[in-house]
Amino acid sequence: MPKSSATAVAHPNIALIKYWGKREQASNLPAVGSLSITLDALRTRTTVSFDSSLAADRLILNGAAAPAEQPRLISCLNALRALAGSQDSALVESVNDFPTGAGLASSASGYAALAVAGAAALGLDPRDPRLEEVARIGSGSAPRSLFGGFVLLNNTPSGTHCSCLQPPQDWPLQVVVAVTSEAGKAVSSRDGMTDSQHTSPYYPAWVETHEADLSQAQAFIAQRDFLGLAELAEHNCLKMHAVMLTTRPALVYWSPVTLACMQKVQELRAAGIPVFFTIDAGPQLKAVCLPEAADEVAAALAAVPGVLRLIPGGLGEGARVIPADG
Prior knowledge:
The protein has helices at residues 70-84, 106-121, 131-138, 189-199, 203-208, 210-223, 226-245, 256-270, 294-302; strands at residues 4-10, 13-17, 22-24, 29-30, 34-38, 44-51, 58-61, 64-65, 89-96, 150-155, 160-166, 174-179, 275-278, 285-289, 309-313, 320-322. Helix 1 (70-84) runs parallel beside helix 2 and helix 2 (106-121) crosses helix 3 (131-138). It folds into two domains: 4-167 and 316-322, Ribosomal Protein S5, domain 2 (2-Layer Sandwich), CATH 3.30.230; 174-313, 2-Layer Sandwich (Alpha-Beta Plaits). Strands 8-7-9-6-1-16 form a six-stranded mixed beta sheet. Strands 2-5-10-11 form a four-stranded antiparallel beta sheet. The protein has a four-stranded antiparallel beta sheet with strand order 13-14-12-15. A hairpin with a 4-residue loop joins strand 10 (150-155) and strand 11. The chain is of the alpha+beta class.
């Protein structure tokens, strides 16, 4: 096969109803379903070039080699090669315009972009539903970044299935990301999930109560019930972090600044401002609000001591192929 390449962009997603833990490690299958929103303000741009002259697959992430990602990269590329009947190795060049490995879902956008760009480079349909499986090999939340707006991920007997509940324009919420640290986290999500499953006494309750949260969130979104969604999303987020905190050794992804931002958001909502927070496995806080509140929320979070910067934006599109110079 002659050299062929394609470029794709994908955006991170943040789960409003989260998942934490695996029901099957080998296939990277999540223990529970999840519901997320895709963010337009953050972007991963990935070019995949298959070339028969390459001796092995290679990843350049943010301008440098990333050996820790090599096993997952190869597994994803192997899945693509199996679909296309190819044996060529690939050079993957990926750039995030936001902190990597720091609780902003860089792996989700990264592997979604890899799946789409790799498929296009191999002559496959970049909208092929089988790419959900390819992306999931890299990150359990990556299939959600293949879609835009509000995205539901359901478990199926043999895998997972994603669908767009509402496109970005149907309920155009705003998200203000408060960056409290640029550093990568000490314990990856994948390793942390394994530790939680084996050691947290709260983990079984997390799984048992999850389906009710997922069902209720879908109803709130269908009804455009912001305050209902706000209370539920914060509750679900704190349930997940309760599992993390009771893991041995404890997974404390928050910083003191994260906690200060949480308290600020709760103060704003108590004062009538339509906003809520959610936090993933990292120190960054995401404040989700109605459009008319975005400026006030941003100003309040910018005033919290220790916040390094804000990344404001709305809901974004799913992963897609772009011109090489795009």
